[in-house]
């Protein structure tokens, strides 16, 4: 059984298309490793004015091996979500977040809050 030229070219095109799909999917799945850590704080909003000194901070740190809150290591769940409580000083407060991935790349974020009695 012999193949015609059009069948040969069709086989090459389909093979290249399949290889392109496999490589594209592999890059899509590995993008988290290439992009590094991210920190997103859900609550409270940056720049918020609070009337209570005790604040609960919620957020998520993706692709992180270690997460720091004001230089102190905090725990995250399997989705990277964290929930911590902090006691604010009266007036202007700066809360620093840091995250490091397994390749030692770091990302930092600041949360600014105001506590008024």
Automatic annotation (TrEMBL):
Q: Which Pfam families match?
A: Glucodextran_B
Q: Which UniProt keywords apply?
A: Membrane, Transmembrane, Transmembrane helix
Span-the-membrane segments of this chain are: 7-28
Is Membrane included in the keywords of this UniProt record? yes
Name the record gives this protein: Uncharacterized protein
Species in which this protein is naturally found: Candidatus Taylorbacteria bacterium RIFCSPLOWO2_12_FULL_44_15c
């Amino acid at each position: 059984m012999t193949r015609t030229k059009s069948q040969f070219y069709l086989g090459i095109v389909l093979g290249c298309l399949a290889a392109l799909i496999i490589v594209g999917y592999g890059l899509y799945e590995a993008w988290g490793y290439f992009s590094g850590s991210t920190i997103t704080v859900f609550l409270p909003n940056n720049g918020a004015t609070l009337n209570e000194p005790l604040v609960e901070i919620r957020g998520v740190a993706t692709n992180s091996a270690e997460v720091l809150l004001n230089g102190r290591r905090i725990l995250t769940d399997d989705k990277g979500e964290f929930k911590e409580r902090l006691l604010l000083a009266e007036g202007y407060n700066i809360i620093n977040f840091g995250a490091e991935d397994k390749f030692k790349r770091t990302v930092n974020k600041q949360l600014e809050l105001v506590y008024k009695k």
